[in-house]
Amino acid sequence: MLKKSRQYLYWVQNSVFEGEISEAKYKKYVTELKKIINLEEDSVIIYNLRTSKYSSREVIGLEKGGQSNIL
């Protein structure tokens, strides 16, 4: 996960990455993540922050702990 994520994004801390990514690279990244993780046990949470008023949250794999607020 670390090596794959560093190919697309900047490492911030522990398991946190950030950066701007094109739609095509985003789709490729998600496809590659799905091949790496165990979709029944692992989870990757992607926050898409387009503007201060619009954001979305995507969970790949197992949803853990329910919904959370972004602070």
Q: Would you kindly provide a brief summary of this structure?
A:
With 71 residues, the chain is an alpha+beta fold. It contains two helices and four strands; from the N terminus they run H-E-E-H-E-E. It is globular and about 30 Å long.
Count the DSSP helices: 2
Quick check: average pLDDT? 84
Low-pLDDT runs of 5+ residues are: none
What profile does the largest beta sheet have? 2 strands, antiparallel
Structural class: alpha+beta
Radius of gyration: 12 Å
DSSP strand count: 4
Instruction: Name the overall outline.
Output: globular
- The amount of helix comes to 25-40%
How far is it from the N-terminal to the C-terminal residue, by CA?
Answer: 25 Å
Beta-strand residue fraction: 25-35%
In N-to-C order, the SSE pattern is HEEHEE
Strand order of the largest sheet: 1-2
Number of domains: 1
Family: Belongs to the CRISPR-associated endoribonuclease Cas2 protein family.
GO molecular function, one term: hydrolase activity
GO biological process, one term: defense response to virus
Protein name: CRISPR-associated Cas2 family protein
